[in-house]
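user: can you give me the structure for this one chain? tokens are fine.
assistant: on it. calling the predictor now.
[tool input]
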Amino acid sequence: MTSRISPSNIVKLLGMMRPQKPASLQKMRVGDEGAGGYVLPDDLEGLSAVVSIGVGDNVSFDRHFATRGIQVYQYDHTIEQLPAAHANFHFHRMGWAAENSTSMVSLAQILAD
């Protein structure tokens, strides 16, 4: 038996998905405002690694962390190589999928590695 989610519950869930102000943290923009930009809590203390899935041709997000000494593990099966290099970049020409295969890797495997 499979359970079915009602349309009203989906609408209710979507209504709860909106930007929230963190209680004690400011927000910061990481990466270019275009394809590489994201808004995150301004708290990198204790962060030693970042996983970047779907790098493409913009590594501004990744570079933000790498220049701060944080290791960046990058996964993208759609590009042959990174558009820019950094000593803290660790590129894997693999895609992200639910299960491992020859060209894809699961999030569970990424985190285990």
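assistant: here you go. The first strand starts at residue 27 and ends at 30. The chain has three helices and seven strands.
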